[in-house]
Amino acid sequence: AYDTLSCYFLTPRRIRKIMAKQGVRGPKPRPLIGNILDVASFLSQSTSKDMDHITHDTVNRLLPHYVAWSRQYGKRFIFWNGVEPRLCITEPELIKELLTKYSSKAGKSWLQREGTKHFIGRGLLMANGSDWHHQRHIAAPAFMGERLKSYAGLMVECTKKMLQSLQNAVESGRSEVEIGEYMTRVSADIISRAEFDSSYEKGKRIFHLLTELQSLCHQATRHLCLPGSRFFPSNYNRQIKSKKMEMDKLLLEIIQSRKDCVEIGRSSSYGNDLLGMLVNEMESRRSDGFNINLQLIMDECKTFFFAGHETTALLLTWTVMLLASNPSWQEKVRAEVNEVCNGETPSIDHLSKFNLLNMVINESLRLYPPATLLPRMAFEDIKLGDLHIPKGLQIWIPVLAIHHSEEIWGKDANEFNPDRFASRPFAPGRHFIPFATGPRNCIGQSFARMEAKIILAMLISRFSFQISDGYRHAPVVVLTIKPKYGVQVYLKPLIS
Ligand code: HEM
């Protein structure tokens, strides 16, 4: 009873008082639901229509509550997601301090962890404290140096397959395609191979189940909000349980068969893919006392897929949309790719020479950052700049708004202008944070950049593409920024 009282009334009241004393204000919360209805009403109004034309001025549409409240209450304001207080900050110095200095004192909240526990469990993305530290240490080598480079070959192979299916579509008379579907498929293919290599077919089934689970959990949180509702034998809960069981069974089978091969001497290692590397680490660290068990390895595999698949597919989809609607940049990037590769398939040595492509990718990540928000929860009282942040306060970094700020990027902040990444030293980690910053930044960012460069370079040298008359520009946020109706482009094969 005390915990409930504290969670619903005492802690929120204490936090509101502390913040009000420091001059941080915000919209008045309603009992229990806070400002949830206000946010929903802002969003339903701003996204009720598609945008008139292709404009990248999306903050009013995707974060209308941020726009209204920051105008009314200033750069720092507080609003309430139910009984959970959220402090919005946009000042670069505060953000850097929070994400670097306080990376262990501010992490993932109980609510976030609960919402994702059925599909990614205790994996790196949702881990906190010393668990996070150990897990990051174990996973980091998989995304660095020679191991990272070793994924280039499989990325090229998967892209060839995707280009062939685009070619087939064109040859069968379809000149218009929804490019997002192809980008989603190729990025799922790449991550399945990188994680499971020879067990790739089972890997694909696992990820299919994971995608279904994610959507079920999302629906369940909207429909079942009564305390203890996760224990009800509802249809959602039954489906979640059975899909989770099937997914874990498949993962266990893969891991067990590799362990068996090592035990009977048929193989000397657990494999060179991400899964093999995690099992090797688990075996070699048995004596360290850190309990990395099979469940954690399974959670880690699911996490890499969840965190890396859709984000990369969206980066690719938005970049194609930008290039398809900016033909002069498409030409410039194509000329660069042709000059660097000289008819060869892109290799690791070529990638660092794709300067224009890199600028376009950065501009795409700036305008359409797949992760629009970075949430953190203070686990203890901290001092952030001049602010005293009490334990239990959520801090909310609106990446999208920072990336579109005229104060930071200039008058053309809402224009597609990749040149800004050539002529002006931007500040990664302060103004440009598509992969977050500090110790908890994206572990897979080099993997994602390498993948994006390979796929885009191969696509652009094989096809020219133009935005279709049927494309409706309607970005929406469902965890990540998505094109509501996909991105339709006219494709024309190039004669080599
Ligand atoms: C364009 C593609 C990607 C974007 C924009 C992106 C963005 C991000 C961001 C913003 C975070 C920080 C989230 C937070 O702390 O709240 C993050 C974390 C993470 N990302 Fe990515 N990501 C991308 C691709 C990938 C890939 C390809 C992988 C793996 C294969 C990956 C794995 C992870 C993991 C495991 C974390 C958690 C790291 C930690 O907490 O230590 N991401 N990503």
TrEMBL record:
The keyword Iron applies. Its cofactor is heme. It is a single-pass membrane protein. InterPro entries: Cyt_P450 (IPR001128), Cyt_P450_E_grp-I (IPR002401), Cyt_P450_sf (IPR036396), Cytochrome_P450_Monooxygen (IPR050665). CDD domains: CYP72_clan. Pfam families: p450. It comes from the Eukaryota. GO terms for molecular function: heme binding; iron ion binding; monooxygenase activity; oxidoreductase activity, acting on paired donors, with incorporation or reduction of molecular oxygen. Heme binds at C442. Keywords: Heme, Iron, Membrane, Metal-binding, Monooxygenase, Oxidoreductase, Signal, Transmembrane, Transmembrane helix. One of its GO terms (cellular component) is membrane. It is found in: Membrane. Belongs to the cytochrome P450 family. This is Cytochrome P450.
